[in-house]
Design goal:
Chain A is 0% helix and 51% strand. With 113 residues, chain A is an all-beta fold. Classes of the chains: A mainly beta (113), B mainly beta (108).
């Protein structure tokens, strides 16, 4: 049982480049989300999804796009990377939104130069 | 907007001393969840509190939910080096918003 799988683990981008961070879960969880973690800022919610075909914005959505075409996958797209997007990104899933524990992936460390 | 405030931001304790982190909200919380993140790791779920005044224990960890459901605390008795990490609280409601966490350092 793999849980929540994030790829890649590390990525370096140049300003203006685009990329997709992958997230997959094999627990049949309805809820999936993306967080970024910066020193002193804790975990900030970027986007989330309560089920396939449904996405919504979190606290810091600008510069990021998501889609949820299947229950298992929730990719995060950076359209035009900026140095301010240098961060550690975590994908997390839960059975449902509201009362279920979150299961986190191992994270992606992204550096934008 | 939905927000939980966590204090302190950092805490250094001698090994064997107790440690407490607090989570506060200006609005009534539907529930409170606690997570632990080891250095270099990812957050791991510890516990969820739902009822007013609820107290739960996990070995040396004691979790409390305030009577008004606006605050919560995590208390660790007799800290050990394995307790090092950052402890986060979060409300799992319409969105899951985390506090900024309390980073615990243990001095040997």
């Amino acid at each position: 049982n793999a849980g929540v799988t994030q790829t890649p683990k590390f990525q370096v981008l140049k300003t203006g480049q685009s990329m997709t961070l992958q997230c997959a879960q094999d627990m049949n969880h309805e809820y999936m989300s993306w967080y970024r973690q910066d020193p002193g800022m804790g975990l900030r919610l970027i986007h989330y999804s309560v089920g396939a075909g449904i996405t919504d914005q979190g606290e810091v959505p600008n510069g990021y796009n998501v889609s949820r075409s299947t229950t298992e996958d929730f990719p995060l797209r950076l359209l035009s990377a900026a140095p301010s997007q240098t961060s550690v990104y975590f994908c997390a899933s839960g059975r449902v939104l509201g009362n279920s524990p979150l299961h986190f992936g191992n994270g992606t460390r992204l550096t934008v130069t | 907007g939905q927000q939980v405030m966590q204090i302190p931001q950092y805490q250094h304790v001698q090994e064997g001393e107790d440690f407490t982190t607090y989570c506060n909200s200006s609005t009534t919380l539907s529930n409170i969840q606690w997570y632990k993140q080891r250095p270099g790791g990812h957050p791991v779920f510890l516990i969820q509190l739902v009822k007013s005044g609820e107290v739960k224990k996990q070995k040396r960890l004691t979790f409390q939910f305030g009577e008004a459901k606006k605050n919560s605390s995590l208390h660790i008795t007799a800290t050990q080096t394995t307790d090092v990490g950052t402890y986060f609280c979060a409300e799992n409601g319409d969105k899951i918003i985390f506090g900024k966490g309390t980073r615990l350092h243990i001095l040997p």
